Amino acid sequence: MNKRENDLERRRLALLEGLRRGERAVLEGRTLSHEEARARLMSLGRRYQVSVRRRGDGTEHS
Question: Which residues contact 32 (CB under 8 A, 6 or more apart)?
């Protein structure tokens, strides 16, 4: 296996691991609603003074 193939395989395994962790979180009820996640992110934004800009359609993005 050459370096490129090895790197690709590592990325695939990392993706699969992330999916596995996400599926387990759902099964164990360790998820947040969109509103809860947004509130947490906004709290972090205030803590780190991350600016949020408004898009032309009135929605926010950073």
Answer: 40
Question: Binning pLDDT at 50, 70 and 90, where does residue 4 land?
Answer: very high
Kindly list the distances between the CA atom of residue 17 and the CA atoms of 10, 11, 35, 42, 53, in Å, as whole numbers in the listed order.
Answer: 10, 10, 26, 28, 33
4 vs 16: CA distance, rounded Å: 18
Please give the Cα distance from 22 to 56 (Å, whole number): 33
Which whole-number Å values give the CA distances from 51 to 8, 22, 32, 60, in the listed order? 35, 29, 23, 10
What the block records as the tokens of 49 is 């003074």
Structure token pair of residue 20: 């596995």
Q: Is the pTM of this model over 0.70?
A: no
